[in-house]
Amino acid sequence: MNENEFRSELLRIAKCLDEQGLNRGTSGNLSARYGEGMLITPSGMGAEGLSEDDIVFVHMDGTSRGRWQPSSEWLFHRDIFAQRADAGAVVHTHSVAATALACLRKDIPPFHYMIALIGGDNIRCAQYATFGTQELSDNALIALKDRKACLLANHGMIAAGKDLHEAFKITVEVETLSEMYLRALQAGEPVLLTAEEFRAAQERFASYGKPSRG
Q1: Which residues of 68-105 are buried (b: 16+ CB within 10 A; e: fewer)?
Q2: Residue from 89, 87, 103 nearest 178 by CA
Q3: CA atoms within 13 A on the CB side of 57
Q4: For the residues of 3-61, what is the DSSP string, one character each?
Q5: Is the Cα dihedral 120, 123, 129, 130 positive or negative?
Q6: What is the pLDDT of residue 214?
Q7: d(CA 193, CA 145)
């Protein structure tokens, strides 16, 4: 895609996040790797009324091009792209269920096999740090090691994907798992999958969503 197409896709996904209740108001942000940097949503602006021209280009050195300041969380977007060659897009939300667990500073354990889609046997919660800081970015990178998503303590969640479509799908999945885990905790103590059971699920996911060989 060219730059204009990336801007349009960022706008489309931002609106999808709002429509599904995963973002509200001006919270959250999303980005896509582009050229020698990234395209990211602007600071303090929600999806409503956002246009392609409002999207900001940020170089890897932190300098930006655009009529607005980039999201206050541009640091962890940039650092994820710098450290993770597999990441082509990043979505950050304050979705309700994931944020509720993040406020409890809880990892999500292997209570459900769909956690395998995130890359390991849990979804980690990064240690707390003030929003927009290098410390927050550093903590997020630790929690994202070998994972496609993490929670941010007392803050929200991050999802990283090969492109915006995958990052959006992971965001939806993490919020769904978060809601299920919260409901299970309300009823009692969820029974966790054993290591063997979880490995079997991971093996099944090796062909999940792949095209037919026939």
Answers
A1: eebbebbbbbbbbbeebeebbbbbbbbbebbbebbeee
A2: 103
A3: 12
A4: HHHHHHHHHHHHHHHHHTTSS-TT--EEEEEETTEEEEPBTT--STT--GGG-EEEETT
A5: positive
A6: 54
A7: 21
pLDDT at 205: 83
Choosing from 3, 52, 73, 135, which is the catalytic residue? Answer: 73
Is 73 a catalytic site residue? yes
Task: Residue 147: name the closest of 165, 181, 173, 129 by CA.
Answer: 173
pLDDT along the chain (214 residues), means of 10: 94 94 88 97 86 95 92 97 97 97 97 96 98 97 98 98 97 98 96 96 79 60
- Between CA 31 and CA 6 the distance in angstroms is 9
> Which residues does residue 31 pair with via DSSP β-bridges, in sequence order?
40, 90
Q: What is the CA radius of gyration of the chain?
A: 17
pTM of the model: 0.94
pLDDT for 47 equals: 81
Q: Buried b vs exposed e over 127-160: b needs ≥16 C-beta within 10 Å?
A: eebeeeeeebbebbbebbeebbbbbbbebbbbbb
The token pair at 175 is: 């919020």
